[in-house]
Design brief:
- By secondary structure, the chain is of the alpha+beta class.
- It has two helices and four strands; from the N terminus they run βααβββ.
- A four-stranded antiparallel beta sheet has the order 1-2-3-4, with no helix packed on it.
- A hairpin with a 2-residue loop joins strand 3 (49-62) and strand 4 (65-69).
- The longest helix is centred in the first third of the chain and has 7 residues, at 8-14.
- The chain is globular.
- The two termini are 18 Å apart.
Length: 70
């Protein structure tokens, strides 16, 4: 099974009143050592959605891109 990060902006657009994403101001102050929750998703063989939310520690920041460890 392969995993990838879910697109939270698409999820937010589908349900803006029930799916929270931080503001740009909050994302802009994230830095190395910070902890963020990400959604990892996969599509099972029966095409059902499989997702898991996990905490990730930021280890590097490259402008708008981040790298981290579980």
């Amino acid at each position: 099974m392969n995993w990838e990060l879910d697109n939270v902006y698409e999820r937010y657009n589908e349900a803006p009143y029930t799916f929270y994403i931080p503001s740009k101001q909050v994302i802009d102050i994230l830095d190395v050592g910070g902890i963020v929750k990400l959604i990892f998703v996969s599509v099972a063989e029966d095409e059902s959605y499989v997702g898991e939310r996990m905490w990730v520690e930021i280890t590097h920041r490259y402008g708008e891109n981040f790298k981290g460890i579980l």
